[in-house]
Amino acid sequence: MIKTIEWTDAGVVMLDQLLLPAEEVYRTYTDYEGVAEAIRSMVIRGAPAIGVAAAMGVALGVKNLPELPPEERDRRFGAVCDAISATRPTAVNLFWAVDRMKRVYARVRDEGPGEIRRALVGEALRMHAADIESNRALGRMGQELIPDGARVLTHCNAGALATAGYGTALGVIRAAVEAGKRVEVFADETRPFLQGARLTAWELMKDGIGVTVITDNMAGHFMKKGGIDCVVVGADRIAANGDVANKIGTYTVAVLARENNIPFYVAAPVSTVDLEMPDGSGIRIEERDGDEVRTIRGVRITPENVPVAHPAFDVTPSRYVGAIMTDRGVARAPYAGSLRRLCAQAAGRA
């Protein structure tokens, strides 16, 4: 299985996704500032992977703290959490992970520096292992919606690279293949970072799963001609009513799927569900540097100084979503009730 992120004695090791598929380079980060920059620059990306990276970054920050009076240690810990939280605004898993680390710190803050370090490192490792387990559970449940012989369209990358391992949307596809089903994948290239062309295609080729890359504006063509049987995407945040924030272009795919009577599914762990967000209108959409649109691999593709808009995500209304596959079961409309029940079930087993 692809190792996206790993805790080692030397530091937090991440596969640099900016260099794939041309180069497979692992980078080691020895302080929380490096982890924060890796999240911000998209060395690591994908909501579940960002959550694990955030937890490891917080643990790394505490591991490197000198001996301090408790009040000063509290202040330094808060600064570490704030720095990690400020990296990317849309993926709820990041904030979920930091909040979880804060609760552990509050529980052990009076037990001394050594115990604090052990507790936070242990929690980050548990979150890493739990993410892989939840992805496998999600895959087993979600694959039941994938028919044998399906031609599945994906958008962005929601595979092992977007998680601690196995994947969400691609985890469903992997599980379907493991169940003996024949599956063919069409991967939207996903401009401007090309996560589909670079990452999804790379992952699936490594697994021996058939994949064809198409440009984003080809999806409607293949749907209309009957070449797509269902769509499976990941999510960075799911509101309480089932509205889904995911990589920019997902909303377009969902509308096209509805027009062509094609099931549109979302695959994400329950940690991606934000019950405090009533609907998608309140989800903050990250705006990234326009040069990421103006250039590809450093080569300019627009006139110099032309204005560029670069929202990194969009929100798909729940009415377009046929089902939300989670690690606790499959939610269906009305999502306000089904998602709340699954989240309650997860909380009861935590």
Mean pLDDT: 96
Shape: globular
Task: Walk across the major sheet and give the strand order.
Answer: 6-5-4-7-10-15-16
Helical percentage: 40-55%
**Biggest sheet architecture:** 7 strands, mixed
CATH architecture verdict of the largest domain: 3-Layer(aba) Sandwich
The named CATH superfamily of the largest domain: Translation initiation factor eif-2b, domain 2
Proportion of residues in extended strands: 15-25%
List segments where confidence is low: pLDDT < 50 over at least 5 consecutive residues. none
Distance between the termini: 26 Å
- The arrangement of helices and strands along the chain is EEEHHHHHEHEHEHEEEHEEHEEEEEH
Tally of distinct domains: 2
CATH class descriptor name of the largest domain: Alpha Beta
Return the CATH topology of the largest domain.
Rossmann fold
What Rg do the Cα atoms give?
20 Å
Structural class: alpha/beta
Number of helical segments with 4 or more residues: 11
Question: Strand tally, please?
Answer: 16
